[in-house]
């Protein structure tokens, strides 16, 4: 699309004032149409920053003077319309400063909304947050196939702040609009059209004709129909709002997660009056921005960016060969192919190779790939029963069962077969690389690439070093990870690496509590109330009790201070085949019981401390031992690898803010034993 822009020569034939100099927008005048192309300087992705809005303000004044037949706003970036507001621009703003900036932004979008000629946003790709709000301020929205519109603000502990709350609830069924804002879920092309967000959904080649239709008033939308009208009364909104509140309460309590409740209040109180809702939106957004929750979630946003940007770009990896097409190998292969890599995959059995293709097709559907993109990804993913890819790949990922001898025999077969310079990475989760490296064809080109299950929804990958791995190998693996849209965290070879080392005590302590007679549902619900995505009892079942035993065993063999001892009944359970969810029975009986999803109203703080503080302690230990370079990477890896309550900012950030973790651990040590002993690293950590 940028190529098209480069060919555009502005219309200089009139006496009109010279268009403003802009860094982020380009103006194109053709016939009676003015098109404002958003093309943020120095980046591949548009974000709606203060500068973008300031320039737009000037361009709108010019457009008003020019009186075109139609004003079109679209993006010059091939990837999408705009990824959202510029978070760097408002993260540090507080109180009056935030209100002032929001008011200025609103004034620009109000100016756009009030123009006396038709305005059209042509949206493609990601059209999120502030980008979506910009499109909502236009009279019409034309979507290009594949467009995705949504408000992810809730994930930052915020709600839309640039007019989204009152514009979307006026445009479509307000309940559907609220759902979008409360869940942060995007509406993909056809869904967005059906909801009435888009007036037209067309392939790129029909955009021009659709703009003409909009200019002539031939594109209409139905303003949310009967439901929208009915919900203009406060009484009707109150009913719907109460339902939304109880749904939100099930996800997280108001005290920890105020944004959904602020949004519901906003709509209930002012949903019938857009002007009031607009001022209330500004005040509410500014207040949320001040909350600890939003500040921690914004921090998590920056941590994600840090993990990603810390990786180089050049991985030199075009072809990946995966060995072992089980739960992990299949997903790694499918995901890498979806991200543009050429992938071959082998297994000792044929059936897993067929399953890999079926699983890939499912992942591509779930990720909303277009038919053509899914077909291309499947073309890149080649079952390779004879292992021909071993000699051609730039990266071989071994995802065979967790048995050292088996992995070593696979490595032996790769020696003198892999091409020079190719990397061998293992997906092992509990074996030490130091024990495997001797079997690797080239120790410098060997490292860990620890994906989490399922790869398609777990963003983190631990890139695991060992004494003999070369920096170039680790750099390339980190770049490869970022290149396939996962987040690389560099960690050292340590029992459980970083993430499992930190997570294991969470589950193992729950086993001890069960042994003491605590109720499993109460344990799980207390953890949910802290903000964990899954209680430790359910998580152990999900991971598999057999795997938990294995992990606990290997951790205890390698750590200075062991995690909780495994109760005898747990071993017996596993021997009896009750290995968790996959067996239909583990700590829960999946025939008759459902693990709780709702957080406890009044959780027992003692349970929470016993589950969470050992995670903080383990994170400090990893920091002290150099398993991870710094506290920020540790927090980020634990959040993205385990789902650790993001609004707490990570285990180390939580400990720092709370301030008394070391003392409480010392108390717990006295009560329950040495597994709680505060790590010597607390002194340095502070
Ligand atoms: P799995 O048992 O589901 O799959 C292993 C596959 O390897 C099977 O299809 C098997 O037929 C195949 N295989 C066995 N021997 C082989 C050989 N010599 N050559 C080629 N293929 C062979 O195992 P998984 O859960 O996918 O785990 C694979 C690796 O990933 C393990 O090291 C495990 O620790 C690690 N891991 C697993 C998870 C998880 O949650 N499952 C998470 C992270 C890492």
UniProtKB/TrEMBL annotation:
Keywords: Fatty acid metabolism, Lipid degradation, Lipid metabolism, Lyase, Multifunctional enzyme, NAD, Oxidoreductase. SUPFAM superfamilies: 6-phosphogluconate dehydrogenase C-terminal domain-like, ClpP/crotonase, NAD(P)-binding Rossmann-fold domains. CDD domains: crotonase-like. In the N-terminal section; belongs to the enoyl-CoA hydratase/isomerase family. GO terms for biological process: fatty acid beta-oxidation. This is enoyl-CoA hydratase. Transmembrane segments: none annotated. Residues 319-493 form the 3-hydroxyacyl-CoA dehydrogenase NAD binding domain. GO terms for molecular function: enoyl-CoA hydratase activity; long-chain (3S)-3-hydroxyacyl-CoA dehydrogenase (NAD+) activity; NAD+ binding. It catalyses: a (3S)-3-hydroxyacyl-CoA + NAD(+) = a 3-oxoacyl-CoA + NADH + H(+). Pathway: Lipid metabolism; fatty acid beta-oxidation. The keyword Oxidoreductase applies. The keyword Transferase does not apply. It is an enzyme of class 4 (lyase). Residues 1-25 are annotated as: Disordered. Residues 496-590 form the 3-hydroxyacyl-CoA dehydrogenase C-terminal domain. The lineage of its organism: Bacteria, Pseudomonadati, Pseudomonadota, Alphaproteobacteria, Rhodobacterales. It comes from Maritimibacter alkaliphilus HTCC2654. It comes from the Bacteria.
């Amino acid at each position: 699309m940028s190529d098209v822009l480069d060919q555009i020569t502005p219309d200089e034939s009139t006496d009109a004032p010279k268009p403003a100099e802009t860094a982020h927008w380009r103006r194109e005048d053709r016939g009676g149409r003015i098109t404002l192309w958003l093309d943020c300087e120095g980046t591949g992705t548009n974000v709606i920053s203060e500068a973008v809005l300031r320039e737009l303000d000037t361009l709108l004044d010019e457009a008003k003077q020019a009186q075109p037949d139609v004003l079109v706003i679209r993006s010059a970036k091939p990837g999408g319309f705009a990824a959202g507001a510029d978070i760097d621009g408002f993260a540090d703003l507080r109180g009056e400063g935030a209100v002032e900036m929001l008011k200025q932004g609103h004034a620009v979008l109000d100016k756009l909304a009030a123009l006396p000629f038709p305005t059209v946003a042509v949206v493609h790709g990601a059209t999120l947050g502030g980008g979506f709000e910009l499109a909502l301020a236009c009279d019409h929205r034309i979507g290009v196939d594949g467009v995705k519109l949504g408000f992810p603000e809730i994930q930052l502990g915020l709600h839309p702040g640039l007019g989204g709350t009152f514009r979307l609830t006026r445009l479509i069924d307000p309940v559907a609009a609220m759902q979008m804002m409360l869940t942060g879920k995007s509406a993909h092309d056809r869904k967005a059209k059906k909801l009435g967000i888009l007036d037209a959904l067309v392939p790129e080649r029909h955009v021009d004709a659709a703009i003409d239709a909009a200019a002539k008033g031939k594109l209409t939308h139905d303003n949310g129909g009967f439901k929208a009208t009915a919900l203009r009364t406060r009484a009707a909104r109150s009913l719907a709002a109460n339902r939304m509140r109880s749904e939100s309460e099930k996800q997280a309590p108001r005290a920890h997660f105020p944004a959904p409740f602020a949004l519901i209040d906003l709509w209930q109180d002012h949903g019938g009056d857009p002007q009031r809702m607009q001022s209330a939106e500004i005040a509410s957004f500014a207040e949320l921005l001040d909350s600890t929750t939003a500040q921690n979630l914004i921090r998590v946003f920056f941590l994600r960016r840090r993990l990603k940007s810390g990786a180089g770009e050049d991985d030199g990896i075009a072809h990946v060969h995966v060995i072992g097409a089980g739960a992990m190998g299949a997903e790694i292969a499918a995901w890498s192919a979806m991200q543009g890599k050429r992938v071959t995959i082998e297994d000792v059995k044929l059936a897993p190779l067929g399953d890999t293709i079926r699983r890939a097709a499912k992942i591509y559907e779930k990720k909303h790939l277009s038919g053509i993109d899914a077909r291309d990804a499947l073309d890149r993913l080649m079952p390779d029963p004879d292992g021909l890819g071993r000699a051609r790949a730039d990266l071989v990922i071994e995802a065979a069962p967790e048995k050292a001898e088996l992995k070593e025999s696979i490595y032996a077969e790769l020696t003198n077969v892999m091409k020079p310079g190719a990397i061998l990475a293992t997906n092992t989760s509990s074996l030490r690389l130091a024990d495997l490296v001797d079997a690797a064809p080239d120790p410098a080109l060997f490292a860990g690439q620890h994906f989490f299950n399922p790869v398609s929804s777990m963003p983190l990958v631990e890139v695991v070093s060992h004494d003999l791995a070369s920096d170039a190998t680790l750099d390339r693996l980190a770049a490869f990870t970022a290149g396939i849209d996962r987040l690389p965290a560099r960690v050292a070879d340590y029992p459980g690496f970083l993430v499992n080392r930190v997570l294991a005590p969470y589950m193992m302590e729950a086993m001890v509590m069960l042994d003491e007679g605590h109720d499993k549902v109460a344990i799980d619900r207390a953890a949910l109330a802290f903000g964990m995505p899954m209680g430790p009892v359910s998580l152990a079942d999900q991971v598999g009790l057999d795997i938990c035993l294995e992990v606990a065993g290997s951790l205890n063999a390698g750590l200075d201070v062991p995690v909780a001892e495994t109760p005898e009944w747990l071993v017996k359970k596993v021997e009896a085949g009750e290995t968790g969810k996959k067996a239909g029975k583990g700590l829960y009986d999946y025939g008759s019981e459902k693990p709780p999803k709702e957080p406890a109203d009044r959780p027992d703080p003692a349970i929470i401390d016993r589950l969470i503080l050992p995670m903080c302690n383990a994170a400090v230990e990893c920091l002290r031992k150099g398993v991870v370079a710094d506290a920020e990477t540790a927090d980020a890896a634990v959040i993205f690898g385990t789902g650790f309550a993001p609004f707490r900012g990570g285990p180390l950030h939580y400990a720092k803010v709370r301030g008394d973790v070391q003392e409480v651990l010392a108390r717990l040590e006295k009560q329950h034993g040495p597994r709680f002993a505060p790590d010597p690293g607390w002194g340095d950590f502070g």
